[in-house]
Automatic annotation (TrEMBL):
UniProt cross-references to Pfam families, sorted A to Z: EGF, Sushi
Keywords: Disulfide bond, EGF-like domain, Glycoprotein, Repeat, Signal, Sushi
Keyword set includes Repeat: yes
Ranges of residues in domain EGF-like: 171-207
Cited InterPro entries: EGF, EGF-like_Ca-bd_dom, EGF-type_Asp/Asn_hydroxyl_site, Sushi/SCR/CCP_sf, Sushi_SCR_CCP_dom, TSP1_rpt
Native organism taxonomy: Eukaryota, Metazoa, Spiralia, Lophotrochozoa, Mollusca
UniProt superkingdom: Eukaryota
Molecular-function GO terms, alphabetical: calcium ion binding
Sushi domain span: 113-171
Name of the protein this chain belongs to: Uncharacterized protein
Signal peptide: 1-19
SUPFAM superfamilies linked: Complement control module/SCR domain, EGF/Laminin
Amino acid sequence: MNNWIFLLVLVIVAVGVKADLAPTWDSCQCRWDDWVAWSSCTKECYGRRYRDRKVWVSNTEGCTEFSDCATSDEGSELQDCNTFCYNGGTYISSYTGCKCVAGKYGRCCDKTVTCAKPSKPGNGEVFYSGLTYGSTITYSCHVDYNMTSGVPRRTCQGNGGWSGDAARCQYVNTCSSNPCRNGGSCINGVESYKCQCQLGVELTVKTMFSPL
Ligand SMILES: *[C@@H]1O[C@H](CO)[C@@H](O)[C@H](O)[C@H]1NC(C)=O
């Protein structure tokens, strides 16, 4: 009675086959060994795991195959595992994994969207306390420079990009070099200036009175 032999499962997965013991289970004097430990899950979330068990036979007369004791699906088990998504994600399929809330990504939604480190504008500064989803950056321009394009405040979006465009700072105090002659007054423009001459002022005064 002590000469048991081990028979292994040969077929690993037999989907759809009804689990059953072989008609020769008793005559072969079969008995189950313990299940081995589950395999590790194939995926970090929503994967599959596998385990199998061996069968012992005592009567070895014509009892040499696992199938003399049971069908192959009786010797193995396949199961879903890690059936969860992180951060409020919802499961979609074994192919795509989880659908994540805004700002999270990855098969299991365990990763947080981050935006690229913004660059400092010329003649200005950029401020930020973080680069993750929802973080904001603000720009400012140095004295005598105006923000002529872009936006002063941008937000890190779900697609990993900053909203709006980067700020541009341009010089707006060209008049500081006193470019106007003969008492003309200077009007600052973006990297430019305009001189308003004395004569122009007189003409303006004149036209103001002429219609009367
Ligand atoms: C620069 O910005 C200031 C403040 O908004 C504004 O008063 C000024 O007209 C701007 N200068 C130019 C040249 O656009």
